[in-house]
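Lab notebook: predicted structure, single chain.

Context: the supervisor wants predicted structures on file for every construct in the current expression panel, including those that have not yet been purified. This is the next one on the list. No modifications to the sequence; it matches the entry in the shared construct table.
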Amino acid sequence: MSEVYGVRRGRLRDRCAATGSAAALISRPANVRYLAGGAPPGAVLLLGPRDDVLLCPRTPAAGDPADGRPDDGLRLVVLPTSAGDAAVAAAELARTDGVESLAVEEHHLTVTRHRALGSVAPRLRLADLGLAVEQQRIVKDEDEIACLRIAAEITDQALGELLESILVGRTERHLALELERRLVDHGADGPAFPTSVATGPNSGRAGHRPGDRRVEEGDFLSVCLGANYRGYRCEIGRTFVIGTSPADWQIELYELVFAAQRAGRQALVPGTAYREVDHAARHILDSAGHTEELAPRTGHGVGLEIDEDPQLAPAAMGKLDACVPVTVEPGVHLPGRGGVRIDDTLVVRQEADGGPELLTITTKELLAL
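Prediction complete. Output recorded below exactly as produced.
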């Protein structure tokens, strides 16, 4: 993998050179990990004219999967306790190396931190790197996709085991904690994001925080979870009916959301505009009169963060490339009644390669548990 990280840094260095910067300071943790292989707490990465340096406030913990493993091709500098901010130390190092222009991630730096960089090296011109690293991260290599595939397998296992247990009478909070424990039991570094479990009138609500409501007969139960495996994060969302055969309105709503989700998945073709994927799913729900209950987007990219570019939203600009992992997650929530969310993680593939690769494979049949 050392060669992979070196190639990634080389691409970014070429981009910086084209804009007149001889060095770049990477401070956003996910971007540090993407370029360096590991991102110990507080670490920054300096891409310098002579070598690349990972500056850490303390010695990285050996073998900690949560932070990754720094690339052996980097020079590792552990700062003394009195050194303070690693980003400021990196700017000073760039100055002593004769760098005149340093590209920084202005969208990540606080105003205070930006001023500190300028004060330690007043003659160093700070240029905005923008979202260059985030844009580079959109298309994944096969090693990254392999990590996402394992994360999805772990997530499917955890959800499948929960569905085999007795659910009636248990609280949303208890079920969410159990799911997160099962993720770790099956090999996850942890949950990819806070697990959402929603029952009855809470079901189908995006980002619902589990509470003390107990599962009851006849409820819709919607679950959204994901595993973090070696830094890569996936997402799955499913909706079930508890205890009895679903009511007519539940069947109708579920089939509608399922049709929208299927349309969104089928639109995942290289070259398709992001907003066209959103439209494919949204149009079905709009046409059924659910405009007011819809989320602002149909899906998003996943990787080292659970919410990355691209955004599959009505006003999103850009087109899909192959090897881009995304979620497709339409839903409808009816206030006071509940609702349905169906969410999968997929990888965009060429039609000659079989079309979109579905990573999360738990059944989407409306099960009565």
